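Marked as duplicate of an earlier ticket. Keeping the data here for the record.
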Amino acid sequence: MVDVRRQPRSRPETIARRRVILDAALDIFGAKGYSGGTLQDIADQVGMTHAGILHHFGSKDQLLLEVLTRRDETDVADLEDQHIPGGIDLFRHLVRTAFANARRAGIVQAFAVLSAESVTDDHPGRAYFEERYRNLRLEVTTAFERVCVERGITSPGSIAAGAAGILAVMDGLQVQWLLDPSAIELGPASEFAIEAIVAAVLEPRESVLGDARPVTARTESTSSRA
């Protein structure tokens, strides 16, 4: 029999303190990056010691991972089953997310900085971002496939390219918006791009650009079909 009296519990004040630290870490990492932001910076912002931060999170790496995890949880907190929807509703959710992000520049900046840093081999967030993009591509791919089945579409455009393209355009627009908010309307621009990519997958048509690929790419494509 398990002695419930010995099971550790997180007291409300401990949970609240951890949230304060996570919010401060998000601010610091967003402003200085993971490498530039220190635990002492975070400790100073919340009125704690370096040792106090370690008491709650164990290490800087673990703190970073919990910051990223909390961001993901916040994105789906108001959704049914705390999970993004499927089918055409997924694309609508992505548009709503872009409009929501326009009101939370700090979170967007932290994500942009940390995701860019994570491309280095030794970054502690690399595995997280690799898995995140892998899962998101799968979610978008599955949504495209579901819509195709529901609408009887048998010859869609490239679903793989569409899935990767939607994620890329959302993140890329965020960077442009962070650099010059007066030049980019994040929500409308994201909506336009997502709508265009979804249409290109579900209603493929002759390219208005023609074949714009380099000659070498055209040759490789022809060879691969031979």
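See parent ticket for discussion. The two ends are 67 Å apart (CA to CA).
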